[in-house]
Amino acid sequence: MGNRDRLIEKVHDFLNNEKLFEHSLAVATTAEKLAFEYDYDRNKAYIAGLLHDIGGVYPNNERIERAENFGIFLLAEEYKFPLIIHQKLSKRLAKEKFKITDIEILEAIECHTTLRANYTKLDLILFLADKISWDGGDNAPFKGGLLYSLEDSMEVAALYYINFIKQAGLKVVHPWLIDAQTELSDRLK
């Protein structure tokens, strides 16, 4: 059994949730494909994709307490909408439980839901892979436009998605998402 197979097995056992595991595998595969298309390390993209949602092992009603116990700094928006906290929890668990030391992988995991300013290529790959392999199934209302925008570039696709979800009426707009939107808009001018 290779390293990848062992990691897949560990993630499966850790999550103990088939739907979340299947989503994680789909994101890992999509991230690997995007990495190939955009000349990035496919293995790093796959690992980031596989581990991106491991913080989802904690239910929303436990995420604030878990984050505080781990010493994770939370923003006001995260207290209002604890679902978002899973990205920070995932980073912590990837480091502690899965012994990931690659900072680029850890930081991409940390911002996979919101993106952030000063994003890296891996941040974009994981952010988009998560949306392309949306855990709500293939009926994502943004998917067609996202894939069409991806024909231009990852940046165009990321900005398309952010604009779409903001117009759709997010419950809480995370400051990292606003920062990413501003940076993407400025870069694409």
Automatic annotation (TrEMBL):
Protein's name according to its UniProt entry: bis(5'-nucleosyl)-tetraphosphatase (symmetrical)
Organism: Lactococcus allomyrinae
Pfam families: HD (PF01966)
Keywords: Hydrolase, Iron, Metal-binding, Nucleotide-binding
GO molecular function: bis(5'-nucleosyl)-tetraphosphatase (symmetrical) activity; metal ion binding; nucleotide binding
Taxonomic superkingdom: Bacteria
Keyword Metal-binding annotated: yes
Reactions mediated catalytically: P(1),P(4)-bis(5'-adenosyl) tetraphosphate + H2O = 2 ADP + 2 H(+)
Domain HD residues, every copy: 20-135
EC number: 3.6.1.41
